[in-house]
Structures are given as structure tokens and as C-alpha cells.
Model the fold of this input.
Amino acid sequence: MAKATVLLVDDEVEFSAVLADRMRQRDLDVDTAENGEIALERVKERRYDAVILDLAMPGIDGIETLKLMLEDNPNLQIILLTGRATVEKGVEAVKLGAVEFLEKPAKIDMLLEKIETARNKSFELSEDHFENMISDIMKRKGW
Amino acid sequence: MEADPEQIKTAETPSPEKPAGVRLPQYRALRRYLILTTLTVSLAPLIIMATINYVQDTEKYKTESRFTVSRILSNTRRALRFAVTERRSALNLVGEENSYNDLASDANVAGALRSLKNSFGGFVDLGVIDSKGTQLYYDGPYDLKGRQYSDQEWYQQVLLHDVCVSKIFLGYRNVPHFIIAFKRARSASDFYVLRATLDLDMINRQVYSLELDPATDAFLIDDAGLLQTSSAFYGPPGQQVPDLYIAPHSRERELIDERILDDQPVTLGYAYITDSPFILVVIHRRETSLAYWLGHRSEMLWFLLISAALIVLVVTYGAIHVTNQLRQADLKRAKLFHNIEYTSKMATLGRLAASVAHEINNPLAIINEKAGLMKDMATFSDEFPNRDKALALVDSITASVERCSRVTHRLLGFGRRMDIRKEKIVIESLLKEVVGFQATEAAHRNVQIEFHVQDDVATIESDRGQLQQVFLNIVNNGISAVGDGGRIDISVEQPNSNEVTVTIADNGPGISDENLQHVFEPFFSTKGEAGTGLGLSITRDIVEKLGGVIGVSSSLGHGTRFTINLPIEKAD
Done:
């Protein structure tokens, strides 16, 4: 199985760099983005199994980034990881379509677990998508 | 211009001391002031009215008394003067019409007396006395012929003034009487005296013709203050009356005066009876004016007393009531201020705590990751000097980070509990959101969550974030309690028009009775290191802050049931 692809979005570069390093050591394919704009570009360029997103960021904040990403790709598996966790924000994020809401500092094992879950989900969804595509093609071409 | 934030803060923050208005002595002073001023303005007119009434009554009574005395005095005086003058004239006429010789026999004198008696009452006897003072001829009920009068006072008077109306005296007969006598010429060098005795009845008739009430007395005195007629106050004729301060002889005047006699206020009237030694005195004993007023105006007095008592009662009660109310209101306000101050302080503190916690969480995350990286390096490198020691150090760092993070989470919880923002909340969707938030966790543990929602449950007015926190805590507890394959039942009901009841029941192992008593206490935990022991304590605080009630029941082996009653509209 190919490496899981993860996008790490956090304005704390020091944090994201170290975390990315550690994830890579654990055999993950990790990209980082230091704000919402860059993150939005990255998800357009590449397909990610999971996006790990901070809430409080300069420029467009985490919630806004989340919305824009899901508008583009509703199947995107987004995990929020934030130091500004409140229940309200969490509920809001989950309502908007985030799959997980984690508080900083988080244990890497837990994070990896969530990423794995997200990847499986993402895989299922893309299979669905693939299936749909095939059945769609079959219907249309109908041979 | 930028305002100095410090100054604004000082201006807005109430002083920490108790507000000055709440101290008790101030209310006492206010109460005193209220009572005094109200009593003054209400009682003063009443008292002034009563005083005016009293003075007017007293004056009226005096005037009435004077009028009574004056009436008796002038009527009696006129009657007396007439009676005396008439008899004097009658006797004078006898002297004028008869020469000495016409009278110079007892029979003649008897004839003259008869005609006098027929024409005028009061004559007792009649006599002719020679210049030596010897009664020559006499007619009357007594044997007075040859009686010597030269040493009598009235005789001296006649010699001096040619005419005399005597004072009343007892004389030889020991009967009170008085005498009218004329000196008449007998010849060129000699004279005789015509004397008539008049009984007192004639005078008494005049004096007592008026029916006098017991407070009034009328009598005659002479210039020496001896009673001439009997007096109701001073006794029979001949008695000395106390000094009445009668002014010297004045012919026409009737004098009326207010005096104190025998310690009694009296109205005293007197007048000289013309051509006689008599002074007519009328005394009207006034009761003391206060006694009179009290006696005659008792209704007025009662009215005054009852009104005054009522006013005092009402005013005192009113003042006490008002000051008490005021004090209560002030206390309430002071308390409110204190609460507002406290709440705003705590809210500020909470916000501060939350922002500090947020700021600390990010560097904590960095420390955590760096320590993790170090651990990774130590774990994954083939050669790492002192690996075990390094790993122990890293673990120690990670443990400390975890401790810090528990603290920051607690601070966040504390911060969140502070201010309440109210909004309309559909409790069912709020619960579903919270459960949805934990759906992955629940699904992962294979926990089944079921909703039982009564139809038409009212929307409640409450704080969304705080309620989410409450339900999250309880559902979380439930999920961790039930374990794999457990079940959580959430029901929403509206038992009455005031509240909504949310019941969250799990089928976990339950809580022992002993532990159940303590579940809401701070720092009580059955999870050991895993929990802060603050979860349910915070939960209960929030519920109570939102005006609700949280209860728990449990039985070992069957599960735990949390019941939360929330007011539909939170009262302040």
C-alpha cells in the first residue's frame, strides 16, 4: 500500500516542521503549509488522504479554510488540531464537515490513528467515487 | 483623544466597600427625620386649631360671664335704686305734706304709716324724733316710743346731711333692717327727724328677683365690706366679705372686672346704689377656662387625642416601613452591584485565563513534538549514547507537557464558565450536534446512542456553548463507562411549562452508593490519573448557573442515569 499522504497546515512553522519530520519517520508522505491560502493551493495540486488543520491562523482562519476546502472537495478528510479548542468551535467544525477535532498538544500515536481512519474513509470514498464513475461511464456508453 | 483605560476602569468599578447608604445609623436618622417632619406638619395644624378653638372658647366664655354679670348688675341696680329712691321720696312726701303738728301724735303717725304701707311695701314703722334724739311719736310693731337715738350713726348722718339712708343693722330689735330719715324744720330754731324703718325683704326681693345659678351670687355690701344682704358665698348679713378691691364711690359706673377670689377666677361686677350706702356686688365664678373647655369640649378633645394618636401611629409605622423598604432596596442594590462587580471580574479573569491557556497550548505543542522527535531519534537510531536515560528524560518532558495541558484545559473550562450568552435553543438539535461530535468515538467503541424525544418540546433560552459542554461531559462519561457494545439512551421531555428535562442513561457498570454521593464534588474521580475530577463538578456548576438542576441515580450493574432540568426561560 502506498504511503498515506498528509497535509499539515499550521502557522507555527516550528511545530509543523517537527511534526512533519516525525510523521515522515513513521512512513507518511507529509507536506506542510503555513497558512490557509497556501493550503488551499496544495489541495488543488495534489490529492491528500488527510489534512491536519489549525484553527487560529493569520489570514483566512481554520474554519474558513475548512469551508473552502470542502467546497472544492467534499470528500476531503480534515482533522482539526488546535490549541484554541472550545466545544463550540469543535461542534461548529464537525457540523461543517471536519472528521475529527483534536486539542494541542496531541499524542502522535493518536494523530496517526486518526490519520489511518481518515485514509481508509478517504479510500472508501474514492472507491465509491471510482465505482460511480465507472457505472456512470457504463450507463452513458452503455455497451 | 484616547481615554485612559485605568481611569475608565476606576469609574466603572464600584468601590469595594459597602455602599455608604446601607449603614444602619443613617436609616435611623432618616427614620427620625421622617417621623419628626411628618408629625410636625400633620400635628401642628391640629394643635394650632385646637389652641385657637381653646382661646376663642375661653374668650367667649369670659364674654358670656361678663355679660351675665353685667345684666344682673344693671337690672338689679336699677331696681334697687328705684326701690330706695321711691321710698325715700315717699317718706319725704310725708314730711312735705304734713307739718310737725300734723304728725305730732301717735295716731297721726300711724295714719301716715298706713298710707305709706298701702302705697309702698317695705315700711315697718314710722317715728318722729326731736332734736335731742328722743322718739316722741311712734307707730309700729315694737315699743320704741321714748327711745333715745342721738348716739346712733344714722342720726349723726341726718344731722349732718338732712337725709340718711342707713346701712343695714340689727338695732334694738336684733332684726336686720335699715332706716330712712329726714331732718325737717319744726320751727325757726328747732327741727325734728322723721324716721322710717324698712325691712330687708324689700331689698332681698330686688336682689333675688333673678334666679341665680349656683355659680353666681349677688349681694349688697357697705363701704366697709360688711354684708348687707345674705350671700350665697359669704354668709348672712353682717359678715365681712374678703377685700374685693372696690373702687371709691362713683355714681353711675358699673364696673366689671376679672379677678381671682379664693383662688378661683371670677367675673366681678359692682355698682354703688345712688343715695344709699349700698354697693351691689355680682360675682360669677368662672370655672377655670381649661376645666370649662375640657368639660364642654370633650368631643373636641377626644377627637384631637384620637387623631393625634392615629397620626403618630401611622407616621411611625409608615416611616419604619419606608426606611425598612429603602434599606432592603439599598441592600439588594448593593448586593447586585457586588455581584455585577464579581461577575465582571470573574469574566475578565476567565477571558484572561482562556487567552493565557490558548497562548500556552501552542508552545506546549511545540515542546511536545520536539520531545517526541527526540524520542523518535533515540528509538529509531541504531546507535544512541545513553539511550535509556534519554528516553526517560523525554518521557518526563512529555509527562510534564501533559500536566501543563491538563491545567490549560481546566483554565479553558473555567474561562468558558464565566459569561452566559442567552439564545433560543432547540435542545434536541443541540444534543444531536454534541452526540455527532462524538459519533466517531462512539462508533469506534461500538456504542449505540438512542434518542427519545417527546413531541413539541419548547425551545429554551440558555447558553449554547455551556450546554454543549454539559452534555459533552455527560455523554463522554457515558461512552467511557459503557465500554464496547454499550448503549446510551437520551430522552428529552417537557414535564411542565417551565422546564425541559434531559435524561442521559447508560447501561454501564453503575456507581456505588458511596461514590454516588461524591460524583459532583471537585477533584473526585473514579478514573484515577485519567481524569481531573473536575468534569462533573464543572458540569453541575454550569447547570446551576444556567438556572437548572442536575441529578444522578445509579445502581451497580445496571447503569447510571443523569437527569438535567433546565428552565425554559432562565430567571435572573
User: Anything to note?
Assistant: The beta strands of chain A are 4-9, 28-33, 50-53, 78-82, 100-103.
